[in-house]
Write a structure and sequence with these properties.
This protein is mainly α. Helices cover about 80% and strands about 0% of the residues. It has one domain. The chain is elongated and about 60 Å long.
Length: about 80
């Protein structure tokens, strides 16, 4: 099971890939080429980010429930 830091790194990596992919789609559109398959891939990448964020939130919740209550409100 991946830890929360791995999930966060994967979210960041995937977001950067999405940014690059969007740029490539815009270039294809300017050139007049079809982008249907590229947009489908982009949708799958965005779905993956949503899933990773849900997993990250679940792990954060698990970490918080494992801490003593008096430690939850402290900010160092």
């Amino acid at each position: 099971m991946p830890d929360i830091e791995f999930i966060r790194a994967e979210i960041q990596r995937t977001r950067l890939q999405v940014l690059r992919h969007r740029t490539e789609i815009m270039q294809l559109q300017r050139a007049g080429l079809p982008t249907t398959s590229a947009e489908a891939l982009l949708d799958r990448m965005l779905d993956k980010i949503v899933d990773l964020c849900a997993e990250r939130d679940r792990l954060k919740k698990e970490l918080k429930t494992g801490l003593p209550r008096r430690m939850l409100g402290r900010r160092w």
